[in-house]
Every structure is written in structure tokens, then in C-alpha cells.
Amino acid sequence: MEFIDLKTQYAKLKPRIDARIHAVLDHGQFMMGPEVAQLEQCLAARTGTRYCIACSSGTDALLMALMALGIGPGDEVVTSPFTFVATAETIRLLGAQPVFVDIDARTYNLDAKLLQAAITPRTRAIVPVSLYGQCAEMDAINEVAALHGLPVIEDAAQSFGATYRGRPSCSLSTIGCTSFFPSKPLGCYGDGGACFTQDETLARRMQQIRVHGQDRKYRHPLLGINGRLDTLQASVLLAKLEIFDMEIVNRLRIGALYTELLREVVTTPCVEPYNTCVYAQYTIQVGDRTGFREQLKAEGIPTAVHYPVPLHLQPAFASPGVGRGSFPQAEAAAERVVSLPMHPYLSADDQRRIAQAVREAAAGVLSAGRS
Ligand SMILES: Cc1ncc(COP(=O)(O)O)c(C=O)c1O
Residue 77 in contact with residue 125, Cβ under 8 Å? Predict the structure, then answer.
């Protein structure tokens, strides 16, 4: 059994993906070829945004968004400590300081109630993360941001395809950033990402930043990066978009079945009633995680931990006065979370087998804890 099965997806899409890849090989425009613009149009339409700027990864999407907002040394950017490293890494790369706010223990997303207290005169932006495929509490976050005139970047690397109160992830704030890493809900066959915005000035800036800050060949009004998405990856994404809606339906069904099978046994994901979650990860909580994972491994069931160490406890983000105990919900989650196999082609039979193994492992872990 695979944790994420990309082979079944490829088998299903092979003629379409192969044809699209061959079309690129034939026309030979490997950088910024016509498929990139076509993809941007499709993604903008899907998310209801005016501008989509495809780029080289989710990390670069965040970097380009922060750069377009002019984030730099001395600035503070408020974000979640319970996320993939790229969220805070990009802030630090620009010389700014990530200021962490603890998460809501139920959803693992930034706790909007704690946001106000983290804002200082140096705050320049807020970067909520829509973790595991469920959007953060964006309306409440946008409200606090508006009070202070701050832009909001949704780190939607894991939530492309999800909706929040009926609106698509990536369209919910000043800029939305996503990732097309192969294992993401919409993934290519290498690195890829995109920024989304309604704001023309920011869009133009991100387009420039993506190509070394140039507005025309060899003229560089801005500092930029090499942040282009290559045409082959765009062609793969165009093929995958053709069945993405069907895959989302599968993801919702598979997530719901997992929850039905496991809710009495372990802590299952809490999806807010106004959200749809695309389950980039199906993440549960258990007690003795190491023992639990070993038992599942012995049954041939792979698991993963997203993420074992909250970012405020990572050496790279060490900050005076911030240590163990600073963000108790993030720390507790980091000790207990474990993700189960999740992809749109997971069969109900496999899910039942996984659920049975989870039940046995959880019971074993519990009785070991009592003895
Ligand atoms: C929450 C989050 N932010 C940012 C990223 C970075 O995306 P990429 O790996 O495409 O650079 C990821 C990818 O794992 C992520 O999960």
C-alpha cells in the first residue's frame, strides 16, 4: 500500500498526460510556453481570482508574495508555528521576523482569537496556513487585518480545491499561495506553485519578481528570483485539472469514510461545517505515536507525521523568550499527530483494513499505557 498513490492516477490519465507532454516536446517552448498562460487562465477561473501567477514551487509562491508586499528587515509577519517550514522560512529569508500565534486545537489552523494580541507596530502581514486541506478561519483573520490595514497571504499549499464558506481557497485574502508538489491535492511531476490575487499592482509585481524583477528583457526595476513554472509541469497540471473535480469528490468521500470508521477510536479531523476539506493529509491523533506507527508499519500500512516539531522549537527559528510552552496547542499537536494513507484512489476495502489496524494499534497502545 502506498501513502499517496500517484501511479494509479497516472494509469488513468496516461493518454492525456503523455499527449500534453509530447505537445510540449514538439513545440519546444520549455520556459513560459503557451501551456503556462493556459494554466494560469484555468486556475484563475477556478478560484474566481483575476490573476494567477504560476511559479516554481509553493515556497517561491510565498517568497514572491512577501516580496511583492515589500516585506523586509525589521518587519514582523504573523503566522502559525504548526506548519511546513517554508511558511516561516520565506519570512526569515527576507530578513523579517515570523511572529507565531498558537493554533486552534480542533482544526490545527491559526487561532484567530489570538491574532489581535500578536500585532505590533512592526507587523507588516499575516500568513495563515490552511493546513491538511482545510482553510483557516479567513473571515475573522481578514477582519483583524483590516483593522490594522495589513495584507493577508493564505498559505494554501495544502488546500487547493477546498472551499471556505462557499468560496475557493486561494481567493480568500490579499494573496493566496499554493504548491503543486507531486503529493499535493493538485500536483505536477516536479516542483510547482502559484500565487493568486485580485490586485493588479501586486499581480504585475509578482510577474516581474518571477523573472528576476524584469519588466522587459534585461531591465530590472525590482529585485526578483528565478521563479518560473516550466512548461512541462504546466502541461501535466492541465491534464490533471480535467479530472480534479472528480478527485475532490473522491477525497471528500474517503475522508468521510475514514471519520466514520475511526471517530470512536482516535481523534479524527474536525472540519468546520462551513468548510470543505480536500484532505491533503488525513491526520489523526494518538497517544504513543511511535508504537502506533510501528504496529501499522508491521501491517504494511505507511504513515507520516506532519509535523513533529513546531517551528518555534526549530533551531533555525530560535527567538529570545520563545521556547517550549510558548505555543501549547501546537506543541501538543506535534507530539500526537499522525497521517494515514490518503489519495483519491484509495479503495473502501483498503480503508477498512487501515481502520482495523488503527483500531488494534490504538487499543494496544492504550492497554500498554495502563499496564
Ligand atoms: C503549508 C505548506 N507551505 C508551503 C509549502 C511549500 O511548498 P513547496 O514544497 O512546493 O515549495 C508546503 C509544501 O509542503 C506546505 O505544506
Answer: yes
Place of cell 494554466: 39
Ligand 1 mutation target, pool 4, 66, 84, most atoms within 8 A of CB: 84
| Nine-digit cell string for 109 | 489552523
Contact 74, 96 (CB under 8 A): yes
Copy the grid coordinates of residue 268: 479524527
Q: For a substitution probing ligand 1, which of 181, 186, 237, 306 has the most ligand atoms within 8 Å of its CB?
A: 181
What pLDDT, on a 0 to 100 scale, did the predictor assign at position 236? Answer: 98
The predicted pLDDT at position 364 comes to: 77
Cβ of 159 closer than 6 Å to ligand 1, yes or no, is: no
* pLDDT 10s digits, 42-83: 999 999 999 999 999 999 999 999 999 999 999 999 999 999
CA distance 78 to 124: 8
Alpha-carbon span 348 to 177, nearest angstrom: 32
Q: What is the pTM of this model?
A: 0.97
- The atom number, within ligand 1, closest to the CA of 193 reads 10
Separation of CA 157 and ligand 1 centre (Å): 5
